[in-house]
Queue: 2 jobs
Job 1
Amino acid sequence: MATERYRLVIGNKNWSSWSLRPWLAMKRLAVPFEEINIRLRRPDSKEQLLKYCPSGLVPTLLKGDLAIWDSFAILDYLAEQCRDVELWPRDPAARAIARSVSAEMHSGFQALRENCPMELLAHSPQSTLPPAVELDIHRIITIWRDCRTRFGSGGPFLFGQFSAADAMYAPVASRLRTYVDDLTRYGDDGSARAYVEAIFAISEIAEWTEGARAEMAGAD
Ligand SMILES: N[C@@H](CCC(=O)N[C@@H](CS)C(=O)NCC(=O)O)C(=O)O
């Protein structure tokens, strides 16, 4: 891996689901990086974002003159750079499915995103959710169960060991933890609940959560 210093531009840790993805992957891969924190939802947020992020959105990974925006593109770049660690599963079939479920997350679940924004520190279980959100949750639970059943024997994550797919779905686990108390209502056989618990047992998620608390307290 090249020795140039990485800088990862991210948003507020309580809210920025997209930022969590590459941040978590880089921490898990033990890739050293400096964080550049942009406070979102402020009058000058866009101006601050545009200083670093070509799309005006976080996350963006900086390395020298290179700026890589979009969480999926950053994960793929990291997977190429850090070849000694497997960010995508090694087995071609597992890797293809990992990319499929990650792409499905990246381009889908609009109803869940709109109705259940990431509020990492909140616990606001909803007794009812719009039908479109319920459909999204059913699909997510099915994806998680299938991945765990087919590929998960080597560990608690979707493909056993931690992979880019878990980085993609960690914010989804956070949304479900915040808004849904009982996943069995959406067809969970226990595997989705166990997966959410596995995500929240990751020490780096605890670190991110601490950062979110500090930001919310204005202590950073
Ligand atoms: N597809 C992009 C989405 C990035 C995105 O929507 N980022 C949000 C924060 S989580 C953002 O920067 N919002 C700031 C704004 O809209 O001004 C990715 O995966 O990186």
Job 2
Amino acid sequence: MAIALAFLPVVVLVATWIGFFNVGASTGHWKITEWFLHFAMRSAVRTYALAVEVPDRLPHDGVQPAAGHFARGCAICHGAPGEPRSPAALAMLPQPPDLAQAVGEWEDAELFRLVKHGVRFTGMPAWPTQARDDEVWAMVAFLRELPTMDAARYRDLAYGSGRPPPSRPVRFEDALAECSRCHGSDGLGRSPSTPVIAGQNEAYLLASLRAYAEARRPSGMMQLPTVAIDPAQMQALAKHFAALPPRNDSVSTADAKVSRRGEEIARRGLPLQKVPACLGCHGGPDRNPAYPRLEGQSAAYMTTQLRLFRNGQRGGTRFSHLMESAAKRLSDADIASVAAFFSSLRPPVATHGP
Ligand code: HEC
Ligand code: HEC
Ligand code: HEC
């Protein structure tokens, strides 16, 4: 018995070497293998999810860009409302489940774990960047809406009103349609978590697009479109959005006291905390055109960016280290104030562009 056991590893190795184990996907797993793999997957997700810190509420602000990302990064395997899974996906082993049905079985922390880290040996990929969690939570918020989402709402969230552009846009019009799915054709952003890019400095837009494509600015949602488009279109897209009129709607309803404190920080900084005056770099007509303008930018978007800068997770252009040290000592309350202040401003229409 002992001798037989001692030889077991050798027997398994030889069986493997002569190709005894069928790795084909066509015949499915043995029942016991299937049971074991599923059991192992569910147990591991449950256990690792214990370490996940769940936010107080899911970021429903981010459902639109998450739907836009889902259309490119997930629907190819899982299908979507009004888009059944393709026969190619159905022939995978294991099959990617229809998520409208599957998500009900998982807690928020478990969905987060699945979407951020993927599942080994199944084809379920990890999120394109491991550097930040807010985008993954936006995806969890989207997944929670899936079971009650009809095809028309999904189509609107994921593609907007236009015709869905090809997934590898080559022509300028198609690349523009790809961006408009999330940014809107007016460049004002289709959700509060999407930045206003209309009227933003062209040099900053172009440098940011390159930073996303090269993963120097981590974002799963922006990496997919910047890698998909023809690189020759980047300059034209930056020029196009920079020339659109910036936001000009009614001024935000932020609390006046909060906004005033934001203005104070913007003009004078916080000398005791060594926070520099924001307008030193972000104000005035002679600012470096590679620095972004903040007037009229969405407060929710700026809040996320400032937290990412503070945590050293934002990345960006070759100037991003300047901003990282400016944000290092901002408290959550400081961040809320400056975001409220800048979002309530309206840029002077005549001087947009560098
Ligand atoms: C290349 C195909 C593929 C892509 C792309 C893909 N998945 Fe999956 N996904 C799978 C497979 C296969 C499974 C089943 C894993 C298993 O059963 O162990 C799965 C499982 C899941 C699960 C767990 C559901 C369950 O009950 O098993 C979730 C949630 C999920 N995927 C979400 C996503 C999201 C969100 C995206 C896009 C960011 C995505 N997937 C992209 C193939 C894919
Ligand atoms: C799936 C939705 C989606 C698509 C498609 C998309 N974007 Fe974005 N975009 C976002 C989100 C979300 C952010 C914020 C990302 C972050 O936190 O860094 C963003 C950020 C940006 C920024 C940075 C702006 C700033 O103020 O720093 C630029 C520039 C940009 N997008 C341009 C584009 C262009 C050009 C395209 C088309 C090639 C495009 N986007 C396609 C969702 C999208
Ligand atoms: C020393 C110059 C400098 C100072 C001071 C500065 N910033 Fe910045 N800021 C930058 C640069 C450069 C970027 C662009 C970083 C990148 O993407 O490479 C930036 C980016 C930002 C962004 C992201 C904008 C976007 O569209 O993504 C926000 C928000 C921001 N700054 C807010 C502030 C606030 C608030 C302060 C004051 C507390 C401040 N900045 C002070 C240089 C500065």
